[in-house]
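Known limitations

Files may contain more than one protein. Parsers should not assume a single record per file. Below, a two-record file is shown to illustrate correct handling: read the sequence, read the token line, then continue until end of file.
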Amino acid sequence: MNSRRHFLKGTGVALALPWLESMPALAAPANNRPPLRLATIYFSNGVEPAHWWAKGEGAAMTFGPAAEPLAPIREDLVFLRGLYHQSAFVSKSPHLGRMNLLSGAPVSLDPNDIRVGTSFDQILAKQIGGNTPLPSLVLGIEPNELRLEDGLSMLYGSAISWTSPTKPATKEIYPARALDQLVGDGKGRQLDRSILDAVLQQSTSLKPRISRGDQKKLDEYLESVRDIEKRLERASQEERLEGWRPTLKQPNLPRPADELPQDVPAHMKLMLDLIVLAFQMDKTRVVSLMLNNDLSQMNFKFLPGVRGALHLDLTHNGNAPDIEAMYLKTNQYHMRQYTYLVEKMKSIDEGGGTTLLDNSILMMSSNLLDGNTHSADEIPVLLAGGKSAGLQGGRVLNYLDKGDENRKACSLYLSLMDHMGVTLDHFGDATKRLNGLWT
């Protein structure tokens, strides 16, 4: 285990401390630097291609309408064009046959053989996951679907993270359960008590021993935990999934299977905040989050101007102008979620002049370019953060004219795994690293 991780402990609770420079005992081992983390954020059914572009560099970078919400993070962003998976491109299944985003492996079209390939995030989890309490954190918003689509299991469309070619990683869609994974110490905390109440005495005694700057950092960190607690409680009062409502003062059952939340934005924001918390606490260094399932049944009527249509229907719009306009709004909404995550991580100091974002790489992607035509000759990919690893933002990297052998998404994954400390000779359909990515 990483010796930098120290905890505030209470009954059934172990709350990891953030990076505190004024306490040498809490510094990172060996090189005194925070670890590098990786999060992959997925949104389904691609983008509106005519509106998906970026031009220029640094502060002068401009974006097409679908990507415009990325403008506040332009100097932290690498906008990638032209990457693809060959096996998805040639698949005879326009939908689920292209659900291999993080593996690049062929998707089995045999209904009796569910098989795609181990995803690169789970390869990382197996190799470096022993350094943290959780090898990886696999999150989602929509539940797994068990129905068939085109004769194939919708399990393909419900998972991007696979622990083996035949087994998807367990996806947690309940924010409260995800929070329990981050704060539990294996003894089973009282679910009707505040996490902070359980560790209040230790946090109070710690403050006189740290600098004024670290006291502020600790207060901000504890406040972020309190904020998540309050939102979970508020959601429980509204009978939403985020906040399981205890029926007893002393719970004697696991969380009941409440209905999915009706408030999609609140659900997504909670999951994004939990990613930040997981990285701050060093509970895991590998996270994936599916904002939607493939062929999503999510309803975007909460967006102004979107008239109660399912995401699937908006993306399969037949080029109808009014529906295309609503599809564009969903693209913009997904980009706002990514921007929120980047900005929040950028605001968190990790010492040594670096932020949580500097010490993390955040990838945002989808399995298709255009959900309307199911085109898989290119996938949209964004990277942010990673300055401590040499990832320089404010750039547009276009691989469309590099030739098929030099624009494989799996080449990107090989490059990312290298910087996470896992070096492979090949992965998926690639043996080369992606040129021009690192500075």
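...continuing to the second record:
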Amino acid sequence: MTDAIRLATRGSDLALRQASEVKTELEDHRTDVELVEVETTGDRVDDALIQDLGKTGAFVRSLDRKVLDGDVDAAVHSMKDVPTDVPEDLVVAAVPRRGNPADALVTPNGTSLENLPAGSVVGTASLRRGAQIQAHRPGLEVEPIRGNVDTRVEKLLAPALQDEHERRTEAEKERMSEDARQQERGDYEASETIEEGVENLDNDSESDSESGGDSGPDNRQNAEFDQPVEEWFESLTPLQQSALGREVETEFDAVVLAQVGLERTGLTHHVHDEELPTHTHVPAPGQGALAITARKDSDVADVLRDALDHVRSRVETTAERIVLEEVGGGCIAPIGVYALVQGDVVRTDVQVFSRDGTEQVGETRELDIENYARDARAFAADLRERGATDLIEEAQRE
């Protein structure tokens, strides 16, 4: 192919980073790529949570429509956002090597999930994550939080930073007032000295030295905030500076989001995060993986598959998506499915929850690597019989 592949992507920071990774890998295979930003339904509904958008695929359909209409050659998606009912003329041409599938708990001060005090407020936009948190720590409060990775982290950090800014500002005002009082006192005493003569000057100077100690630097209130506010602001990271100006209705003690989102946006060096075990907090089907869609009959699909497809990642995510499709509920359901190729089996963990985490249907099963698709369907059928689909439908009605 001589023409550049036009690759559609959402315009969020994370989406652009993911698309750029795909672009770089294709270019390493001597394929020219042009990224095309597309606004999706999910991007336009800023005040809604994912489960409230009314359908799955809120971040996917707009991009795939561009592919089907021929406006672009392919599209980059987070696999967990891709509905299981892919349009007939479309194909998941490539599944690149999967990133970290786990969830992460992020706190302002590094507190672990086990050590969060009862009543702490944990933010998440996911029914699954909320149910898992409540199942593991029933004493915690789960509240909805909306936005991309940066936005959610900023909402977490904002209250403490804003409180510190207010205290620093008050301390700076006190220092300025005290300096003004000192200056005024000094001017008055200088005037007295001139009137009373040289002898009184010595006495006044001694008196001033004795009385001035009460307002010296060592006795100032909020002496720990001696650093000017502007200088303190400049010492903050860009993320913290942005958080400082964010309006927040709910004060969160922690947020839960995908570990790979933190890694791909470079936030792991700027936040306190705890990776949650995948056996207790089973990830969403496809979490950590990307899906590159293209028209089924296009030459681009073959190019993408040859350059990008990672067989193990495709097997694992396919097994997860089969279970999801067979159990029902789509990508917004309170269900976790995580498959891992181990030798000649695909070890698959499944958790299905009620919305409040008090009820659960779950199991770990080893699927035969040669017949994993068949075994995944049988696994899902057993889960349905045990009430998994009923839990999903009830959670979505609520």
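Parsers that stop after the first record will miss the second one. For reference, the second record is described as follows. The chain has a mean pLDDT of 87.
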